[in-house]
Amino acid sequence: MKKNILKIIAVCTMVISLVGCGNKNSNTSKTVDKQSGSEGNKIEIKIACVGNEEHQSTIAANLFKELVEKESSDFKIDVYPNASLGGEREAAEGVKFGTIQMTVATSDGTLPAWVPEVQILSIPYLFENSDEAYRALDGIISEKLNPQFEEAGFKHLAFGELGFRHFTNSKKEIKNVSDMAGLSIRVQEAPIWFALMESLNASAVPVSFNELYTALQQGMVDGQENPIASIATSKFYEVQKYLCLDGHTYGAVSMIMNLDFFNKLTDEQQKVIETASKEAAIKQREVVSEQEEGYLQEIKDNGMVVTEPEKASFVEATNDIYKKPEVAKIVSPEFVEEVREFLKK
Known about the structure:
By secondary structure, this protein is an alpha/beta fold. 46% of the residues lie in helices and 18% in strands. It has a single domain, classed as 3-Layer(aba) Sandwich (D-Maltodextrin-Binding Protein, domain 2), CATH 3.40.190.170. It has twelve helices and ten strands. Mean pLDDT is 90; it is low at 1-39.
């Protein structure tokens, strides 16, 4: 009996030992990536974009993906256009809370909910041309705002291009600021845009970008304002008749990443991300600028009446917007004046 008991103990010990070895081998046969939560050696980055495959934000995201994956085998990047991960608000919130690693979003659209002063880009006629905008964005504006983005939980990687914004409408040709009177214009939901419409004697109507085509089609609003590329790729010429090339503000997109996600990367991986984002932004600006002439021709070919208005009348009507109390609460007048001084150098 004693011998039988000893045999049973020996067998049990052997089984436990084998099970233990099996578990050990199982644990070491897979590498679980802590950043993405997925199996394997790749760090997964999901990039949310609201625009379609041809939109400026998607162009920036795809260029970033190409540059990162070319430089490093550590990453697997997937771009999600067409608001498939939600509108800009949902995408930005997803990045903030870490459910999405990255988004490319309109800089002065939903992001001012966390970094109000990025609405300096909503100050009308701040930049005379693209070169001024690039210089300010990559210089004084980034220096001022990047720490604010980090305080909000974002890593602001770079500013890409949407382009100068122009008014379209379905009612009448706009030759002078007085022609704006009475029009209902879709704008982003922010006091600066409401102040702009008030100064032009037009009505401001906030509508999300992914619902804008339908709003125009159904006559919920008379018009909207966006860069030429956005107007063309979104086919707004199907539901709008008139385009006024007033260039009231320069539109940028922000490439932002969850800050905790970024901070957990190695120094080398962070360098890859930062370098690729800056290079992607430069290349994206070139691509968007080169496409603009073709997009404008497409707009004309599809029947829109394109007008170059008396721009001075618009500048005069909006000259003091940045000093209005409701605007000054968001963007300090001193910051606006700092940018203007910076551009004089």
